[in-house]
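Subject: SDR family NAD(P)-dependent oxidoreductase structure
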Amino acid sequence: MHALVVGAGGIGQHIALQLAEAGHTVSLASRRGAGPSAEVLAQAARSDAASRVTAVVVDAADADALAQAAAGASVIVNAVNPPYTTWSTAWPPMAAAFLGAAEASGAGLVTIGNLYGYGRVDAPMAESTPVAPNGVKGEVRAGMWRDALAAHTALRVRAVELRASDYFGPGAGAGVSFLNEYVVKPAASGRVARPPVGDADAPHSWTYLPDIAALAVAVAEADQAGPDWGRVWHVPTSEPRSQREVARDAAAAAGGADAVVRPLPRWVMALARVVPLVRELDETRHQFERPFVLDSTAAQERFGLRPTEWTDALRATVDPAGARRFSG
């Protein structure tokens, strides 16, 4: 099987590498033409996996270029992550371009999604949780899946969406992972963790990057005409942990003392609303101020997957090279 993975951030890199480890050839597409980083390569189960990944230059906003890159692929993975502040304008044409490329090539479309479409919830989120977005970003993501499912139902494409909670892990990139940036890194280095939003003791589900990739591979290898496609799956995710618990565990993984977590006061964030990215956090603030729990039972049972052991995931995040796991 040949796969086109679009988006060379942490998610795309891990998916490309795990597809290669499974014996498939992969084109990893991005505007820069970047390949897997050293942090991600250190997690490979096989040292020769990277030889089956070819980095190519493709702008996902260019529908013609995307369709051309998809020619000959059995699967297209949409792992693109445009800047928060551009979602309302950047996502609709890109999502349409992905559907067009899938229809033209006959490749199945795997979209990596998130939980924003569920809005404010009072119980663990399963695939059956009603979609009720409470802001623009949630509406954008909900609309993307609505369009993809309509195209799937009309037999124009074969589509599936994999939804993860806030992710962490090696290769996430600077400023991309909330947990990496505001909790794990400072706690592991002995500094006070100062997350910009949230209750430090609220339970929260955190999804490990390689676990997103593991589900993507399992779904990509499934029969596209079968019941595993045309639906949503939740990525296998560990039991919820508060920011304070994560900081403690990250400090322990780094061999340090217990960590201190002091979320920034609301008044500080109110003053910082002149910064566009900070304003964007308002829509998702509720996710960090109350329990935000992902139920991934369905995917775990269907594909026989389990989330990576929590201590192993944190160790790899704190010290990617030290957690090297390839066997040959």
